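Notes continue from the previous slide.

Worked example: a multi-chain complex. Inputs as given:
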Amino acid sequence: MSNGIPELKQFDEASLDAAFSQVRADAERSAAEPNLDREQFRLDWLGRKQGRLKAISDAWLKAAPVEAKKLIGQRFNELKQQVEALVDESAATAVKVEVRSLDISLPGSAHRPGAEHPLTKTMNELVSVFERMGYSVGIGPEVETDFLNFESLNFPPNHPARDTQDTLVLADQEQKPLRERLLMRTHTSPVQIRTMLAQDPPLRIVIPGKVHRNEAQDATHSPMFHQVEGLCVDTNITFSDLKGTLDHAMKSLFGSSMKTRFFPSFFPFTEPSADVQISCPFCNGKGCRKCKHSGWIELLGCGMVDPNVFKAVDARRIELGLEPKYDPAKISGFAFGMGIDRMTMMKYSVSEIGLLFSGDTRFLSQFA
Ligand code: FA5
């Protein structure tokens, strides 16, 4: 053996195969070493002057009898290709290791914890105030039928009250009867009807959600905004129950010194109807720019459920094969709906409604 290369004594094919296999096994064993120095491996095997392949060439090929040179030459070329492949593989493994290795000198990347959007915060707070009063939570779709958004809520076709909630209608609906045409809901009130169609009285439900109106954007109006709706139906529900419930909810949200007052208003689906004002949280009712020096800010609409709504619900229940359960002679109820965006603006002194939808993290991070 010279230079670690076994001496070739026989030149038949089987002996040559055995000798070359042994060398290839050596090369594979070295390449698999855990701390392989790739460059050293290449030099050890392929180095022009002292590499093992050069030694094999010298010891086996050059010294072989003429008739064996071809057989050795073929096997030598194969071995060379196999060793070159091992060098390439070790290079690829080394790149992978380099990529995976940890460079502790690099600056760290900060992962800032997320936080609830101020709108979500207000919505959740309000919903939990009502949950504590025994209300369950419901939701409904943003695309509604004309029947559920308007007709069942006592907005007959062509009624002027429809103008107060102009909306966006879905295209290609003209061939359908008006009550089945689809539109973007203008308020969360259609979920009152959905609930009464699905459940028998008594019920207490609070409904948060997104609504849409065909309105230009300004500091306090947006074509897309959020409401929380409430509906309570039972026997002997009175306007006093409505006043007490909303007063408690506003005090829970804005503090116990908050006062509420109710002003006559109009909604087609409640009778009587009222707008609720709260004492201005910015000046404690003394009068400031935010409350236009009145000491009061208007926050929501409410009223006693109009008997026509109960009648529309029962008529629809009969159409659907359900028992009519909402006879206005036997039951009564109240409903309310509030704009969450404006409530959030009030709570956090936000002057522009658009900021709530801007996605600007400089604004949003203040609430984290
Ligand atoms: C309604 O939408 C009634 N469905 C509320 C209701 C429910 C009354 C149940 C009685 C019984 P109104 O159109 O006033 O009512 O809207 C309710 C609240 O939504 C408003 O007080 C206001 O806070 C908010 N709001 C209305 N339009 C916009 C808008 N364009 N941008 C932001 N908030 C709005």
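Summary box: The mean pLDDT is 91. Strands lie at 136-137, 143-145, 182-184, 203-212, 224-234, 260-267, 270-279, 296-305, 332-339.
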